[in-house]
Design a protein that fits this description.
It is a single chain. The chain is globular and about 65 Å long. Helix 1 (3-15) packs across helix 3, helix 2 packs across helix 3 (35-60) and helix 3 crosses helix 5. It is α+β, with helices and mostly antiparallel strands. Helix content is 21%, strand content 35%. The longest helix is centred in the N-terminal third of the chain and has 33 residues, at 94-126. It has six helices and 28 strands. Strand 23 (369-375) and strand 24 (381-386) form a beta hairpin.
């Protein structure tokens, strides 16, 4: 295994604030003991700083004063100087040495690096690489030059940048020039570029792809906080969080490298791998489906909202946060979302007579609204549905402990109206499809203080 490649990926993730605590300790030990690693780290840090400086100069110059819409400001990226310095001070005694060395190298190498980066960035900005083919919910697209793209519509060409799904009901689909299709869903963040080779960074969230055969020697590269994935041509799904990455392969073959220790594994069709610190990377066969499910909020499972660990007075919970829907900017709701699929668990199939049971707490009685996202047997997005429209739920009552329990019938679920208005492809009903995410919300006219302790799917009779 090439140490330079392993170090490069590890250091890059450190500069972007994506390492786990265990990985940070590993970096600190490596920099303290290996002169070659220290030199490579400083060179990479200089390069990262120069790229950020170029973006900020372009966005902040007088001739580009309109690059951001009125009232929008650039947020300092994890690669900027301030973050770069703040991350150094968390390292041991090597920190002072590295800061002095990086400052020296920065002055000596700026002239060499800047023209190359500016030319490459100009090429990216001038050449569309993909087209929006579908989207729904609250999304934010940031272009290569740092501009915020507000005019998102199907058919718009994009030159690369970062797409963020801001809520559990967000969904975005993009098609590259060669026909490869990638999708993010839920609370996700994906950065993409293509200068002869597709390179993507999935910082968090759910990602699916249908990749056509790529040029020889130029596979699609997808980097998550813990892995690097190489794809020549296949259909697969990725779930990425800070502590682990799960890859399910439907067709073809995917190569995964675990950045924690540099180990590499090839994942064949119908197999999956979950990469986390100390885990076995041996592929396991994708499990058969099941028709029942219960949330596991005793562990932090991601999703949208504030996770609350268990106390003596209540079980672990997901707490709703204020959220402004993209289609209703004048409305604020209290929203939470819980992922269902992933981590190599059996996919959850919906049966026609199934029920959803939601248990939690409310400060005041309120109408609870529920939505779900589903996929087909290939892992591709199949639609979103609401369970409170056909048969409107009454106001949810609470007991003396402010606890509640609500039942929703799957037969009452209908296509999410926002999806219907955008004429986005969707199944007519969720029966027989696979459950990906659940979200629950209330109108925030008063503080409902919504939190959910448990969501479960009760299958009912199979028809």
């Amino acid at each position: 295994m090439n140490n330079n490649l392993i170090w490069d990926e590890l250091f890059d993730r450190h500069l972007h604030g994506e390492l786990t605590d265990v990985e940070k300790e590993h970096v600190a030990e490596l920099l303290d003991s290996d002169a070659a690693a220290r030199q490579q780290f400083v060179e990479l840090a200089q390069w990262d700083t120069e790229i950020t400086e170029t973006i900020y100069e372009l966005a902040g110059s007088p001739q580009n004063k309109d690059i951001l819409p009125s009232g929008k400001a650039l947020v300092e990226s994890p690669g900027s100087k301030k973050t770069f310095v703040s991350q150094f001070v968390t390292l041991p005694t090597v920190a002072v040495f590295l800061m002095l060395l990086s400052s020296l190298l920065y002055r000596q190498m700026t002239t060499f690096f800047a023209p190359i980066e500016k030319v490459a960035r100009s090429q990216i900005a001038d050449s569309p690489i993909a087209t929006i083919t579908g989207f729904r919910g609250s999304l934010l697209w940031t272009g290569n030059q740092g501009e915020i793209v507000l005019d998102m519509h199907v058919g718009r060409e994009l030159t690369g940048g970062t797409i963020e799904g801001l809520g559990p009901c967000s969904w975005f689909e993009l098609q590259f020039k060669d026909g490869s299709i990638v999708t993010i869903s839920g609370t996700s963040m994906l950065t993409l570029a293509d200068i002869g080779q597709k390179k993507l960074r999935l910082k968090q969230g759910a990602f699916t792809a249908d990749v056509v055969p790529q040029p020889v020697g130029k596979p699609m590269i997808i980097q998550t906080p813990s892995t690097v994935i190489e794809v020549v041509g296949t259909r697969f799904e990725v779930e990425a969080l800070q502590a682990f990455t799960t890859v399910n392969v439907r067709e073809g073959n995917v190569r995964l490298k675990h950045l924690f220790d540099g180990s590499v594994v090839d994942i064949p069709a119908h197999y999956c791998v979950t990469a986390k610190a100390g885990s076995d990377l041996s592929p396991t066969r994708l499990p058969a489906s099941k028709n029942h499910w219960k949330s596991s909020l005793d562990i932090h499972t991601g999703g949208f909202g504030q996770w609350l660990p268990a106390t003596k007075k209540r079980p672990a919970a997901q707490k709703a946060l204020p959220f402004i829907p993209a289609n209703y900017p004048d409305i604020t709701i209290a929203l939470l979302g819980i992922p269902v699929s992933g981590r190599g668990e059996p996919p959850v199939v919906l049966t026609p007579s199934a029920q959803f049971r939601v248990r939690g707490r409310l400060h005041y009685p309120a109408k609870l609204k529920i939505g779900i996202a589903v996929s087909d047997d290939n892992g591709e997005f199949a639609g979103m549905f609401r369970g409170d429209l056909l048969n409107e739920q009454p106001i949810t009552k609470i007991d003396e402990e402010k606890c509640f329990e609500v039942i929703y019938q799957l037969s009452d679920f209908s296509i999410d109206p926002c999806l219907a208005r955008k004429h986005t492809k969707s199944a007519e009903k969720p029966d027989g499809l696979y459950l990906d995410r659940v979200w629950i919300f209330t109108n925030a006219g008063v503080s409902s203080r919504l939190m959910v302790h448990e969501v479960s799917l009760i299958p009912g009779e199979i028809e």
